Amino acid sequence: MQTVEIPKILLLHPCPYMEKDGQYDILGCLLLARGISIPEKTKFPSQLKQHVPPFTVQLRRSILDSPLTQSIIKLDVYPQKELLVPLNNLLAPHGLCVKFV
To answer: Which of 84, 50, 83 is nearest to 64 (CA)?
Structure first.
């Protein structure tokens, strides 16, 4: 299991974009931890036009958001304090775990 440490100062939850004013939503933080830069006004990983498993899938030469990404986006209804448990439940089958530091 790979643990992704996300500094609380970087996390902006909920957020309409993956990056806003130097802070990131949970998807943005996960992609940033993988070394992927995120331009402003990007809402979905598929807009980055690169295959980033398990967050995107490649289908007929197109990059689409995975069901995991769609489920993570739906976590915007949770307050930040309650986000970690459902997020880690979603990420566990993919060998990932998130820890806020």
So the answer is: 50
- pTM passes above 0.85: yes
> Does the CA dihedral 83-55-97-29 come out positive or negative?
negative
Find all residues with CB under 8 Å of 36, minimum gap 6, and list them. Answer: 48, 50, 52
Contact status, residue 69 vs residue 87, Cβ threshold 8 Å? no
Q: Report in angstroms the alpha-carbon separations of 52 from 8, 14, 30, 31, 35.
A: 23, 22, 11, 8, 11
Residue 16, SS3 per DSSP: coil
Rounded distance, CA 98 to CA 39, Å? 23
User: Any residues with CB less than 8 A from the CB of 63 and at least 6 apart, and which?
Assistant: 46, 48, 49, 50, 51, 56, 57
For the segment 59-70, what is each residue's pLDDT rounded down to a tens digit? 999 999 999 999
**Cβ atoms 84, 98 nearer than 8 A:** yes
